Structure formats: C-alpha cells, structure tokens
Amino acid sequence: MEPVGLTIGIAGLAGLFSACLDAVQNFDSYKTYGRDSRFLAARFDADKERFERWGQAVGIKDEKLSDTHHPALDDQKTRSLVHKLLSSIRDFDSSADGAVEQQPLLTDGKFPTNQLARPHHGAPTDSKWRKATWALRGKTKRTDQVQSFATLVQCLFELIPPDEAKGIRPGHEGRDYGPTHLQDSSVDESPWIAEIRAFVLEVKEERRGGLTFLCTPALSLTVPDETKRALRAWLGCPYPNDLYDDSIQKRLGGTCEWILTRSIIRDWLSPDVSAFTSQMLWINGPAGFGKTVLCAKLVEIFSSSLQTPVAHFFLSSKFEGRDDPFMAMRSWIAQVISQSQAALDVVHKRRQTQHEQGATRATIVKLFREVLQAVPFCTFVLDGLDECTWVEEARNNGVSVVRFLDQLQQAVADTTTRILVVSRNEPEIRQGLTQYPGFSEYTISPKDVRADNIAYSKSIVNNKLRNKDEPTRLSISQKMADRCNGQFQWLTMQKSLLRGGRNKKQLERDIDETPAGLDHLYDRNWEKIETLREEEKARTVSLLRWAAFSLRPLTVCEITEAVLVNDDCDDLPVDDMPDAIDDEYIESEILGLCGSLIEVRGTSLESAPGSRMIHLAHFSVKQYLLCKIPVQGAGLHVNESLRRSNEAIENMTLAKLCLRYLSFQRVWDCLPTKDNSRMGTSFRDYAAGSWYQHAIVDGAEDTALVEAMNALFDRSSQTWDAWRRWGRTPIYAASMNGHLEVVKVLLEKGADVSVANTNGWTPLHSASTSSNGHLDVVKILLEKGADVLVATNDGRTPLHSASSNGHLDVVKVLLASGADVSVAKKNGWTPLKAASSNGHLNVVKILLEKGADVLVATNDGWTPLHSASSDGHLEVVKVLLENGADVSVANTNGRTPLYSASSNGHLEVVKVLLESGADVSVADTDGWTPLNAASCNGHLEVVMVLLETGADVSVADTDGWTPLHLASSNGHLDVFKVLLEIGADVSVADTDGWTPLHSASSNGHLEVVKVLLEIGADVSVADTDGWTPLYSASSNGHLDVVKVLLESGADVSMADTDGWTPLYAASCNGQLNVVKILLEKGADVLVATNDGWTPLHSASSNGHLEVVKVLLEIGADVSVADTDGWTPLYSASSNGHLDVVKVLLESGADVSMADTDGWTPLYAASCNGQLNVVKILLEKGADVLVATNDGWTPLNSASDNGHLEIVKVLTARVNLDHKSPRHSRTALSYAAESGHESVLQLLPADNHVSPF
C-alpha cells in the first residue's frame, strides 16, 4: 500500500518540532512518579534529551530548519513519516489523562507490518504486561505514556540517525552524509523503515489524539538493551544451556501430571500459606527417576500460571560453571529483573553503588535479598543441587552446598518467597534444607512414576520395534516398565537390546537378564570394557575420564585428540588420528567402546560430526566411574566420603595431560586459527585455558605437575612464545593459583613481575585477591620488586584486594612494604571501605592503626560506617565509631548508617547507632525514614526500637506512603499491628489515593486485610484511578481477600475511571474462582468499559477458556461489539485462541460480523497467522471474499504477511486472480512487495497487474 497523506513542507517541520518540545515540557511539568517509578522518570528525562539532540542533529534549531539540514528530509516519503511521528509527539500532552493504546509485539520484537493485528485501546493484549504493571498502584497509564514517548523518539533515530553516529558534529557546513544515509531508494529498501512506514499508515489519528503504541514489557523501553546486557554481565549471569528446553522436549505428552494432584504442591503454591514466611519445598528421589524432566514441567506450569516472577536454574556438572549453586542466584536475579520493574530498579541502583567489573558473591547474596524484599511472592526453582555436593569446596572458590543453603536461608528470611529444590536425597542437602522455616518435603516413589514409566517404555519400544505387532510391543514395553523400578534412565539404556531381528521370546529373555538398578546395569557395561584388548580398554577409560571430569562437554574433535595423549608421548601421535571424523567413527570408536555410558549430542540439527558434544548418559555414571577408573599413583577410595579425593586426583591427572599436550610444538602451529575442528590443534584452546583449573587442589603440590608447568613456562622451550601469545602470562597464572614453586622457577628464569593484563591486574593483584590469599607468593613477588602501589584500570591496588577479601597476613605484608591506606579506587572506595563492607574486623583495625581515614566517603557518599552498618557487621561498627566515624553523615541518596542498618534488620547495629546519637527522624531524598525502611522489610524488633526512640509513625514519604502502607503492602502482620497500637492512621491515603487496605488487598495479605476491616478501614474507598480494594484483589486473583471484602460490604459493581469493574479485571487476568464468586455476588456480566469491552471481550482476547465458559453460562452476550466493532469472537480469532473460538461459535457468535473498518474474524486470523482458527472459521461459513473498508481480503493480508499455510487454505476457497472492488492489485502483488518468496511460488503469475 502506498503512503497516504498531504505533501509535508520542509519548513513546517521546524514549527512542528517546536510544538513537540512544548508538549513534552508540559507533560514533564506535572508528571508524578511513585517510589517504584523513579527510574522511569530518569528514562523520560533521558529520552527528552535524546529528542532535542535529534532535532539539532538533523538541522532543526530555534524553530528554523537549517539550509544544511539532513538530506533525508528532502525525501517526501521520509518527510511524511517524520511529520506523522512529530504530530504524535505534539499530541502527547493531550493524551496524558487517557489510556495509551496498546498493540501486540511481533515475536521478533519489531514493529508490526501494515496489515498485522491492529491495536485496540480496550484490549490489554499482553497479560504479562498487565501482571508486571498492576502493582504500580494506578500508574500504568503514565508508565505507558513515557514508554510510548521513548518508542516515538527511537523511531525518529532509526528513520534518520543523528549525525553523531556518523562522526559528524551538528551544525557543520557542507556535511557529507555518505551513501549509507537514507536516500530515495534506501527508504523503500530498508526493512526497518518499511515497517515504520507501514506502522504509521495503520494509525488512526482520530483515536485519542495520538499514535497507538506497542504493548511491551516494562523493561523493554524503560531501560535500553545495552543497559540490560551490562547488568546481566555485571551480575555474572551464566550463559544459558539447553537443559530446560531439552527436558521440555523430552517429556512425553501426559507425563509428569501426577505431581499436580499432590496436595503438597497446592499447599506450597497457596498465597495464604506463604503470606508471612518463605516456603521451601524439596522434591527428592533416586537417580534416574526423571526429576529434571519433572522439574522442567513444573517450571513450565509456574511460568504460565503464576502472576508473580518465576525464575529457574538447572545445575549440571556437564557445563562449565553450572556446578556452582551461587550461579543459580545470579541467574535468578537476572530473570526476575526481566519480569519486574521494581526488581530492575533495585539491581540498577545497586550497580550504581558497586563499581567492580563483576558482582561479588557477597554482593549477589545481598542483592538477592533486596530483590525479594522489593518483589513479593517470587518463585524460584533449582534442579540438580545434588551434582554440586561432589564439588570440593577448595576447588570451587569456597563454594559448598551447605554454605549456599545457609546463605539462601538468610536471604529469604521474612519474605514471601517460594523455593522449589529438586534433587536426590543427599545428606548435605537435607542438613541445609530442614533448617528452613516453611520447609516441606516430597519423596518420589516408583508408584508415583509408574504410569509415566509405562508411557516412556511404550515410546521406546514403538520406536525401536516398528516391525512387531501391537501385542508384542505392548508385552515388551510392559515387561520393561515392570523391571525398571521407577528409573527412566534404566529404560533408556535398554534401547540397544531392542533389535527388530529378534523374536518376542528372545527380546523378553534379554530384558529378564538385564540387571535391575542403574549400578548393576553399569556393572554390566564395565564388565564388557574389562574384556576389551588393552589398547581399546585404555582408550575407553580415557574417553570416560574426559567425559566425566572435563570442565565442559568436549567436542568429538577435542576428545579425539585428548585421548591420544599419555605420559609416554613426546609428540602428538598424528598417526593414530582417524582418517575422518564422521558418523562411522563416532559409532565404532566412541559409542561402540563406551556403550550406553555416554551420549553424543549435536549442537544443532545439522551439526558436523566433529562439533557434536560428548556427554555422560547420566550424572550417576560419574559417581560410578569414581569407583571404577584406575587412579594412577593412588589406591582406590571406595568409601563414599572419600570419592571426592578420587575426583581431585582425576582432575590432577587431566591437568598433567593438558600440559603434556601443550608441550607439543605441532599444537602451536597456525596459532591464529580458531577452527576447533582442525585436527592437530582442536584440543588446544581447552587445554590452554583449563589446565590450571583442573590443577587447583587444596594447596597440594604434585611434583609431576610442577615439572610440567615449569616445562611449559621455560623461556628456552619451543612452545614458550606461542603460549605467551595465546593468553595469560605464566607468572600471573601461577600466582593466581598459588603455585609457589612454579612462581619461584619463573622468577629465576626472568619472569617480569610488573606485567599487567588488559584490566591492569598484575601477579601481585592476583595473589593478593585469591580466595586463600597466597601469602608466600605475595612475599616472593615483593622481594622480586613487585610494585605495591600499582593500580588496576579501575584504581584497585593489591591492598584493596587483600582488604576486601580479609587476608590479614597479606595486608600486613603489603603495609610493611609501603602500601598506601589512603589510596581510593576510581569509585572512591578505600581499603578501609572494602574491609568494612565485608566485615573483616582485624583488617579494619590494622588499617585504622596505619592511619586510614574513617570519614572518607565514596563517590556515592558511602563511608565505611555506612557499609558496615548496611551489612550488619556489629564489631566493625563499634570500632569505626570508637575511631571517630560520623553517625549522622548521609550518602548522596540521603541515607544514613541508621537507615541502612534498619532497612536490613540489623538490630544490634541499630541499637549501637542510636546510642551514639543517630537521628531516628532523618529521611532520605525520597522521604523514607529508618522506620519506613524497617516497616517495609518486616523487621519487627528494629521497628519497636525505633518507635521507642521516638520515630514518628505518621511520617509519609514523597509518594504519601506511611510505614503502615509499607507493612500492609508486604504483609508484615506483626509490624502492622505494632504500628496500629502506636496510633498509625488506617485511613490515610498516598498521593494516588491508595490506603493501607488497597495495598494489603492488592498483594493478597489476608490477615492484614481482616485486621484493617475490623478496625474500620473503608472498603469502598477508591484511588485516583477509581480502583477499590476489591478491584485490586480481584485483578490479582486473591480469592480469600475478595471473599472477606465482599462480606464487609464491598460494591461488586463499582468501576474505575476507565469503566473496568472487578469482574472485568478478574476476567482479563483469568482469575476463574474470583470470577465465580463475583458473579455469585451479583456482578453484571453485561457491563462494558468506556470502550465498550465486556468481561467476555477481555477473557476471550486473553484466551481464558474456563472464564469464557462461565461468563457464557451466566448470560454474557456473545454478539456484543465494542466502540470499534470488535466482538469477543474477533478478539479471540485475532489472538489465535482456538478453544475459545470454538466455544464462542457454539454459543452463536456471528462469524461474518465485521468491525467499523470492515475487519472480520477471518480477516484478523488470516492477518496474524492463526491457521487453526482460519480453518474453523471457514468450516463455520466465513466468507473468504469479504473485503475491509480499504478493500483488503483475508488472502491479501495473509499474502502480504507471508503466512504460507493460510494462503494455501484460502486459495482453495477463492479465485486466485480476484481483486476487491476498491483495488486493482492482487494477492500476488502484495506478496511480491513484502518479499515473501514462498507465497510467490504458491500463487500463479498475475497477468493483469505487475506486482513490482
């Protein structure tokens, strides 16, 4: 379709731009932001600045257009688009009080094309968006407006990028934009510009005076993508792997459903149960019981049904870094910030106060707690924790399961968090979990998984024995299920026995003779390995060793080289390389030797054989191998508690093999090559980057290992230069790992102690920072002239590193060598601040003795006292106060040490600060006092102490929230009661009209609601948007709260300013039980919003089938249309909700009814690619030839959008050469213009009109 509209004069753009600036300024002058939306305010200001910068860059200044304006403005199409975008921004202010229209976002995140599903102001099309913004207490409209402005500004930037992006300053004369800028042809050729053009053409400017916008999650526009990526990087969020997706795909339909019938799951999920404390559920079971697949199923259910954030993490020893349980916490935070604006604000603020390149574990734990306090009812799922119990703490930087569970318990204390842990029943896990308040446990039994075993067994047999009749397959599968004793892995390992050439009796005998239980099954595999020739046996053991103990799964090419290396090799034995890495090689030389103990998996559907990955078949295989693989130079530890020693020895063995491989000159040939499939060098990167990680074994020095390292680092060796060019310097690597003897040898051979890496870290930094603080290495580096004052790129000295990690002896040595206690990092952190933050008392004392200034603050105004108070380091606080720390100093946010201690619940610290004169009434820049912070986070004893000291219970923050609001919102019942006893006003409302009853009702805190009602809280009061407590509770599905409010006289018919009733809100969000109770209490199913949307519209649009059924049973009108002519059938068809469409049609919905633009349900479904809906609409008589007011037919739209299967269906019903009455173009021309080749091939050539 060609752009429509008047020719826009160039000169007029300058005046329009000026009007835009005025409109934006007017909006800015009265905007108000809540406590959870201050980051949104900053985003608005930033986008306003971007908008002004764009105008200057394209040549608009002082209401005039420069003669040297951007040449793209000379293009009529581009200028027309700019005019439309600016017009929308100009009208931005006029829509400030209106709801911003929303539109579905394409799956690829781009703007819709010209005929995609149109927006609709009455239809909230993204339930997740609704869920994420519901808690903003009526500020959704304002949030949408700010996000919409950001979208418009981004459109302008993409349409005509500012000059800075080209390295040209605005205002320069004679600018040359180059051929890459938008010219006449590029406007049509750029997909992005084409999508913006199509998007703008679809806008109806008469609707609320402005442009319709995308309905996107809050984070998509409030924070740039690069900022979110930077936050994930700072969090140290691990790269995703395929464990979850693989488990979802592995699961057979209908399996794992049994868990949903167990009452323990329902109880754990109940909001009433978790309203006052965290809930820990542990599902455990034996190896091979399908726990990971079951866990993935639960994650899938939680993610689709819960309205609060859900995050998961699947631990596995198969992936590097995935056996560290603290990585789960990092991943959880990253997932929650993508679902919650409040969580994003918390993380972003913490990041601004922490200037390290990456968040430390201590920071992550603190941050995790802050997120949980800001976002109630989060659900976290952790699978595979038992795989971490096998990782030695010394080898994993102090990580242990017990420590992780202890810190996790502290983080979730007094929150409404739900945690599900799925693992085997390991003693370390039981010890940690049983200490949790709210702990419950479910042990999976063979009976639980019996039906799933049968289903899985059938699928295996049906696949392997396709040539057998049904009774035979059924008999075999039943026998396998009977023998497996609940273990799916046992069934998997039977695949090799199921050979179609054997008869039924032979197959049954094979199964009967297979040992029961995984260990016995592994024994049979091992016995076969024992019978191999010595050469094959050695190769098999080596394959299993690398598969079991490598830091990540190796590729076929990598492991092919790795298994050729042994202690007797003087060079890489290329003569033993295979002729080709192909399927035959994998089958005979890898799988054929190891049997069912390992698996070879492709990285993609078309993976080359050499790039496929080697995995153990199951984690239990690794544990089995620890008792079986011969350990060189040591007796076999078969005792369960000593298997970790075997693992340490195996890792030492792999370290030496890596070093042996690296000593081969052949390996370093063609160094620049990064092709890991090149035989002869494919294993190099793994060996060079992983040998020292394998070598970390609790400070032990292996003589052979030291010799191998010395050989690698020998400057006279032929591999020295190649190794040095590859990565870290040898002295840095040895210092980091504390290998003293290696350091000595390197220094004797002239290693440079001053060489720093790209971040400015020297060997002295490395040794000072290590988790163990390598004192002897530090000493020898200093003796050899290492500079104790040298700083990294961010200003960190070795003293910073040692102080931060509490290495007292290292700190003493550094100070004795001249380290400066006053040197601050670029963020203002001194060594004293670092030590205080982490609670290292003795380090703090010695730094103070050496003259450290207790009053020096960071760039953010944080003093050492702030840090120690915030983290609850009582003894450090006392020492700092004794040395003159100022108890009243506030940071840049106005927060005092007392505020920080109160917020985090550090009672004893609070007492000490108050005794030292801390002012209980000082508020931060947002108006929060220590009492606000403590009440918000539920720290009862701190609240009582603050009140006893004179804290004012009635003081409100800048948003009008009192301590009572905060306690009510977060369900802290005991704090809430104490505040009431002191005289807190139960009727006080915030600046948006929210009372404590609103807060408690919205978040489902039943007991708080009951108390409020008992003492006279007004159940009918509405906020500034017309939301009542009943409305808020209904929208969020808090059934018991809804019941109590109704019993107390809440009006079921009261609507908000947009005409949304509690019934509408509940229907919109799929709250079935709430819908039922509201209808029982007289809610009118026919009442429509200001836009004409009924509850049936909303439920249909969002695909809530059961709600739709209930509404229809009560008498909802299936044919009612909104102000734009949209019926429930239209909404359901547009969004592809097939089952809802069926029910509406069965209830008499008119398949031919069109909206005010002539769009029928068939047109909407065709446009949006809803194939199954299209089929059923056609079955019910939908007319394929009916055209819209613009003359578009369903076939036109499907062709334009490239929906090939729908085109096929429609072409079977229509003359391919048809043209609508108002158009001279065919479906072929639209497909051609949009570049949909597959559709072009399907449609016959158009002999009448050229599509080009």
UniProtKB/TrEMBL annotation:
<feature type="repeat" description="ANK">
    <location>
        <begin position="759"/>
        <end position="793"/>
    </location>
</feature>
<feature type="repeat" description="ANK">
    <location>
        <begin position="860"/>
        <end position="892"/>
    </location>
</feature>
<feature type="repeat" description="ANK">
    <location>
        <begin position="893"/>
        <end position="925"/>
    </location>
</feature>
<dbReference type="InterPro" id="IPR038305">
    <property type="entry name" value="HeLo_sf"/>
</dbReference>
<feature type="repeat" description="ANK">
    <location>
        <begin position="926"/>
        <end position="958"/>
    </location>
</feature>
<dbReference type="InterPro" id="IPR007111">
    <property type="entry name" value="NACHT_NTPase"/>
</dbReference>
<feature type="repeat" description="ANK">
    <location>
        <begin position="1190"/>
        <end position="1210"/>
    </location>
</feature>
<feature type="repeat" description="ANK">
    <location>
        <begin position="794"/>
        <end position="826"/>
    </location>
</feature>
<feature type="domain" description="NACHT">
    <location>
        <begin position="279"/>
        <end position="387"/>
    </location>
</feature>
<feature type="repeat" description="ANK">
    <location>
        <begin position="1157"/>
        <end position="1189"/>
    </location>
</feature>
<dbReference type="Pfam" id="PF24883">
    <property type="entry name" value="NPHP3_N"/>
</dbReference>
<dbReference type="InterPro" id="IPR056884">
    <property type="entry name" value="NPHP3-like_N"/>
</dbReference>
<feature type="signal peptide">
    <location>
        <begin position="1"/>
        <end position="23"/>
    </location>
</feature>
<feature type="repeat" description="ANK">
    <location>
        <begin position="1058"/>
        <end position="1090"/>
    </location>
</feature>
<feature type="repeat" description="ANK">
    <location>
        <begin position="827"/>
        <end position="859"/>
    </location>
</feature>
<feature type="repeat" description="ANK">
    <location>
        <begin position="726"/>
        <end position="758"/>
    </location>
</feature>
<feature type="repeat" description="ANK">
    <location>
        <begin position="959"/>
        <end position="991"/>
    </location>
</feature>
<feature type="repeat" description="ANK">
    <location>
        <begin position="992"/>
        <end position="1024"/>
    </location>
</feature>
<dbReference type="InterPro" id="IPR027417">
    <property type="entry name" value="P-loop_NTPase"/>
</dbReference>
<dbReference type="Pfam" id="PF12796">
    <property type="entry name" value="Ank_2"/>
</dbReference>
<dbReference type="Pfam" id="PF13637">
    <property type="entry name" value="Ank_4"/>
</dbReference>
<dbReference type="InterPro" id="IPR029498">
    <property type="entry name" value="HeLo_dom"/>
</dbReference>
<dbReference type="InterPro" id="IPR002110">
    <property type="entry name" value="Ankyrin_rpt"/>
</dbReference>
<feature type="repeat" description="ANK">
    <location>
        <begin position="1091"/>
        <end position="1123"/>
    </location>
</feature>
<keyword id="KW-0732">Signal</keyword>
<dbReference type="Pfam" id="PF14479">
    <property type="entry name" value="HeLo"/>
</dbReference>
<keyword id="KW-0040">ANK repeat</keyword>
<feature type="repeat" description="ANK">
    <location>
        <begin position="1124"/>
        <end position="1156"/>
    </location>
</feature>
<protein>
    <submittedName>
        <fullName>Ankyrin repeat domain-containing protein 52</fullName>
    </submittedName>
</protein>
<feature type="repeat" description="ANK">
    <location>
        <begin position="1025"/>
        <end position="1057"/>
    </location>
</feature>
<keyword id="KW-0677">Repeat</keyword>
<dbReference type="InterPro" id="IPR036770">
    <property type="entry name" value="Ankyrin_rpt-contain_sf"/>
</dbReference>
